[in-house]
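Dear all,

This email documents one entry for the complex benchmark we are building for the journal club exercise. For each entry we list the sequence lines for every component of the assembly. Then comes the predicted three-dimensional structure of the complex as a token string, followed by one or two observations. Please use this as the template for your own entries, and keep the labels exactly as they appear.
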Amino acid sequence: MKAIEVTDLHKSYRTAAGRVPVFEGLTFTVEQGGSLALTGPSGSGKSTLLNILCGLDSADAGQLALLGEPAGLLGPDDWADLRRSRIGVVFQDSNLMPALTLEENVRLRADLAGQSFGPVRDWLERLGLQGLGQRYPDQVSGGQRQRAALAMVFAMAPDLILADEPTGSLDRHTASAVADELFRWQRHSGCTLVLATHDLSLAACCDQHLDLASGA
Amino acid sequence: MLLRAMLSHYRRHPLQLLALLAILTLATALWSGVWTLTSQARDSMAAGDRQLAGQQVLVRQDGKAVSVQDFADLRRNGLCVVPWLEVASDSGGARVIGLDPLAMSCAEAAPSGSGPVLDGKPFVDISEAARLAKDRPSVLRLYLATEIGHLPEGWQRQVDPAALDTGELADSFLLNLNALAVLVVLVSALLIRSVYTLGLDQRRHGLQLLERYGVQRRRLRRYLLLELSILAVLGAVPGYGLGLLLAEVLGSGFGSAMANLFDTALLATPHSVTGFLVTVAVMALVVFWCGLDLFKGGRGQTGMVRFQVPLALGALIAGAVTVLVAGSLVSAFLATALLLLGAGLVTPRLLQRLAAPHRDMAPLRLWRRRELGVLIRRLALPLVALQLAAGTVIAVHALVHTFEGTFNQWLDQRLSGDLFVEVPDGKAIVDVVPVLSQRELAANWHPVLRGQVILAGADTSSSLDLMATDSRSSLVQNWSLIEGVNSPWLAVGRGAVLVNEQLARRKGLTPGSRLILGFGEQTREVSVAGIYADYGRPAGEVMMDVEHLPQDFAPAFRSLTVTLPEGSANSRREELLASLQHAWQVDTLQVRDNETVHQLANRIFRQTFALTRAISYLTLGLAAVALLLTGWVVLGSRQWYYQLLVVWGLAGKSWFRVILTLAAELMVSIWAAAVPVGIALTWVLVQRINPLAFGWSLPMAIYPGFWLELMALLALAALMIAGAFWLRRPATGIAPALGNGEER
Ligand SMILES: Nc1ncnc2c1ncn2[C@@H]1O[C@H](COP(=O)(O)OP(=O)(O)OP(=O)(O)O)[C@@H](O)[C@H]1O
Ligand SMILES: [Mg+2]
């Protein structure tokens, strides 16, 4: 089964200077349980595409089917339901509520997804955050925050993870540790992963590779 | 170049600049307006005092009102008296005072002469005043301009009754207003500071960047201070003009309130340089307070935070003790200030404590509570300002309503009766008794006589208002007294008197006290049977039975209060009046009906608190606007996190509900914090400050209905905030990520 089917997708932004196309006629598919790396120079539309894939933005033309559902039939509330329990989104940073501890953040995300929050501590521990659950986001390092963000996504047990430069703000060493966790979990749970990154070694870990600059 | 970089903040946030300017302008307008009014009032009273200081008035020994003929006779006798004719103005507002420039010349020539000083608008030539006096209520006083050995037959010297005792009351009244003005300054200073520091916080990053680029910190501070001063001037100048305008708008009502309360006309003094300087000085202080942050570096409020709670508790306890023992108005205000300070310091902490979630709350609720805690902390200043302003409005509302209620009840008692018929000059009441005894014409009636009586004291004697009526009339017997002996009306029937609250407070009278009253030549010792409420005027008054008036007492005013038979038609009223006219053999009668008098009295007395009410509502409005603005900015800085909830799958409606609940909880917190402040302030106002300031107290009453109205207003504000967020949510895409250094 296909997790994502994109056919002839067009997207442009209206600016003061007129219409600025981001991509024209984008076509690709990702199998269930597969992984796709999105690369391309800054401004090539990686974030835009991820936003479209989770319903936070919409395309101008073309078809999109997500987890077996044609996007044309999805209303805003259906998209919200999808994001709530089936699509996990990770940004480069600011994935955590600053007023909640790491543990409470994970619990909130799991609760919204309808998952029990029993194994919350397990998730934190498995991601190397043991003993940090009671800390607030501004009391841990950037890498630890990003791992907590992954814990939140894992805790919701999604079918699809959309990650926008999840390791973009981390040093090489931490970045590869976080990426390892991500891939290990993706393989283990059988969910689909779409990753936007500038890091070619990270992109190489994915089954597929889409370079938005060339459209290939 | 540097200036451009610094100003770019406001170019990016024009709304913030506008908000800051608006708040600066409105705050300046409010406080300079109040300042202008109070200083006008103070000048007017001082002018009145100067004119009347040590002045002696000539009064007739028979207690009759002085007439123009009397004046002419005295002048013909070579006595230097200065006439002072006061005429009420049409609108019930300020009065016109007529003086005779010719008569004043003898006063100026006299060595010890200190005739009235002519300044200000309301003074006109006496002929003009006399023309106006033809169809309006007026009073003629004759001031003795020179020392003279002996007085003509039938005349006696008296210290001017208008100058009596009201000075202290008037000072208290002004102090009351000044306290309100200080509150306005404090609240608006809080607001200005909170809006400014909020902007500063937003710019901190940019400023640090400039510093890293090598701009000296000293230079940065100088620029910021310069910018702040420019902003202050830009806000203060139009604000001052607006304040003058505000003073003018509120002035006429305020003038009549002063006239009613203290018998002092409000003179329109031209605006002074001092007023502007005071405005500038206050503004400089506020700016200095805002600028303090620039020199502290970093956030650096930890010291304050550590001592906040003990400081707050100390202020609350000290305030509570002071207010209980307060014997003067100044100490009462000091106590109020301490209470407000304590409340302001403790409120953010208390609210945060209350907002703190339990560990096992549902995660989304837990998030909301934590977010609420963040908002309370970051909005502490405007929140406290709104709390104090709302508390003041609650208290002032309660005061005004209690006053209106009490006053109406009192007026109903005083005016129980349908018609008030003036007894024509030279006619006797006995002539109409046969008419009034006819049951089908009048169900009930009693006479009311008014005049002056001298209260003999140890050192000086003073003049009092006297009211005489029939103590057996059922129309007066249902008056409720503040205090009284057993069956007070029986005692009055036997010769005792009742005194009004003002007189009782001033002379320390209680039921059973004894007074010596002088009627012309004759003096009489009477006992006090009770004390009655007498609102809205400073003069002391005694009330006695007509039967016990001396035979030769000459009342200045006589009237009949008549109750018409139940359900009688208009024709009956006409019939009664015709019969009275016939019995007295006059063509016209001065008749007023209950309704008209009621309306007139209410209109006048409502003005008494119009200014207080206007100021407190304006302050509330200012505080609310500031909270909306700062709330907007703070919530805006949290927008990413609210959007995160959308990313996490909270659909439109449920997201809106979460934000709305959050905003509503914030507003309810403010409301809940304001109500106790309002109740405490009400008590202090009616039980402590009012007796000290006006000479009469009011019962303590609370109006939960009004609290609900206030709550509804705040709920509306919450809806506006949530609605604005709903509109501001990005239609597509998601806002660029913020740094994760965002504080908790
Ligand atoms: N709201 C918007 N309005 C107008 N243009 C936009 C908007 N959002 C993005 N763009 C433009 O669309 C293009 C794609 O932006 P996008 O954020 O998807 O790039 P990206 O590949 O994620 O870049 P980066 O690697 O820097 O994150 C850019 O040229 C950008 O300027
Ligand atoms: Mg991007």
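Observations: The radius of gyration of chain B is 32 Å. Residues A 46-47, 164 surround magnesium ion (ligand 2) (CB under 6 Å).
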